[in-house]
Amino acid sequence: MPVERTLQKAAEELERGDLASVLRARQRLVGLVTSYPDRLDLRDRLAAVYRVLGDAAQAGRWSYLLEVRDEAEVAAFERAYRTPLARLEAMNWVNGESGAVTRTARERLVALQSAVGEQLRAELAVADDRDSSWGTNVLVLLGLVIVLLCFVVGAVTLVMWVYRWFAG
After folding, report:
1. Rounded CA gap, 144 and 102, in Å?
2. CATH topology of domain 3-129
3. Between vectors from CA 41 to CA 38 and to CA 45, what angle results, nearest 5°?
């Protein structure tokens, strides 16, 4: 079904107002946003459906890149998706900031990607602090060598025993 026809059907279902129709409209718009993730107008319509459903976090998710957005919804989205990486993944934006058609969307994507970079650098710094010391690594290596040596001695002993048993 063409995009405009799908949008028309979703608008009709939304106008009906009953829960089943609104959920169908939501499903149609989710499909469109999945197919055309860089179209901000589709994101705006999906956010409107989530407003009707009373889901502020999802409304904030889909209106995050728009010129006009409700800051309470954005705050709900940020509470639901606590890290910048989780927010970026949840928005399902695939074309980077170059795919954004408005300056506001580009600025918000750049800010979010920058926050993701800072988050990853912080996680790597914490991971570096947790590395083992050289002494610990040497002890682990020594333990592995002893285990390997015991395995080899045991295998040689077993082979010698089987040989003697058959040799008689």
Report:
1. 59
2. 1.25.40
3. 120
